[in-house]
Amino acid sequence: MTEMAPADVFGGDWHFEIEREGFAQGVRVLERIFRVTTPFQTLEIFDTKTFGRALVLDDALQTTERDEFTYHEMIVHVSMMTHPTPRRVLIIGGGDGGTLRRVLEYASAEPVQVEIDRAVIDACKRYIPSISAGSFDNPRAQVVIGDGVEHMHANAGGFDVVIVDSTDPVGPAVQLFATPFYQSVARSLADDGIVVAQSSSPLIMAEAMRQQVTNMREVFPIVHTYLGLVPAYPGGLWSYTIGSKRYEPLGVSPETIAERLARDRIQTRYYTPEVHRGAFPLPPFVADILA
Ligand code: SAM
Q1: Distance between CA atoms of 135 and 35, rounded to whole angstroms?
Q2: How would you write the pLDDT of the chain (291 residues) with one tens digit per residue?
Q3: What values do phi and psi take at 43, rounded to 5?
């Protein structure tokens, strides 16, 4: 049998993300809108048939118009609700603006965002504006272009919540998963501060996830991994890990979460008080990775 290219089988233009262990996930590309090689990565914007516009960095799909809410609501609301009064919030990465947008939904939040690659912000504002929805122009938001690792080492603390919305541990993001980075995050947090980081796919990137959670356990007294679905990410099942100095993520009641959502008039399509609770029980195969 002759080997066939994906386009021969499916027809048309496709973007395939080839993962380790012989697995690839593809999206049908309707139009390649923009491509640039920045000092940090290759940046592409595609129009896709199923997910609308998509941001792709170094061939890895980062976010799409149609499913971004699943990821951004889960990386933001679980940690922001775990902290009773999140005001000073630091976002590392997150150049598409979906995380900043959700943080700004909290009336009391004063977010600072440190993104290494200005080109990601510019391209997303221009070609996928629905994700940031004007957040980069919100006067409450302070955006710094720089390396999150250096910023953490050089800047004083007092943050209530730090959200690490980074690319996977390759290229400029490698250090964002290492123990020294989490140590500097801990120093930058207030005594009751919380960090949350995307911790990749338990199905496809189990070893990277295990290492990251091990590193966080070295630094934070309370560490919990929780799960969500992000359909456009490889394997669909995604993990996030919270490191906390004082608050337990399951210590906040569903009633309190509901009150706070109502108080700030936060509309969600994925996150609810029940989803918050339901994200923490881990299937045995995930618990085994982290045991
Ligand atoms: N939700 C996405 C995911 O899990 O695939 C992450 C999206 S967001 C676009 C990731 C951002 O992290 C990118 O814009 C990238 O430029 C930024 N980034 C990577 N390394 C960084 C670093 N050392 N400091 C600050 N930002 C960084």
Answers
A1: 23
A2: 445 566 666 788 999 988 766 788 899 999 999 999 999 999 999 999 999 999 999 999 999 999 999 999 999 999 999 999 999 999 999 999 999 999 999 999 999 999 999 999 999 999 999 999 999 999 999 999 999 999 887 777 799 999 999 988 888 888 999 999 999 999 999 999 999 999 999 988 899 999 999 999 999 999 999 999 999 998 899 999 999 999 999 999 999 999 999 999 999 999 999 999 999 999 999 999 999
A3: -115, 125
Find the 265 Cα to ligand 1 centroid distance in Å: 28
CB 161 within 8 A of CB 79: yes
Q: Which CATH number fits domain 10-64: 3.90.1640.10, 2.40.440.10, 3.40.50.300, 2.30.140.10?
A: 2.30.140.10
Handedness of CA 221, 224, 230, 234 (dihedral sign): positive
Residue closest via CA to ligand 1's atom 2 equals 62
The pick from 166, 170, 229 for probing ligand 1's pocket by mutation, whose C-beta has the most ligand atoms within 8 angstroms, reads: 166
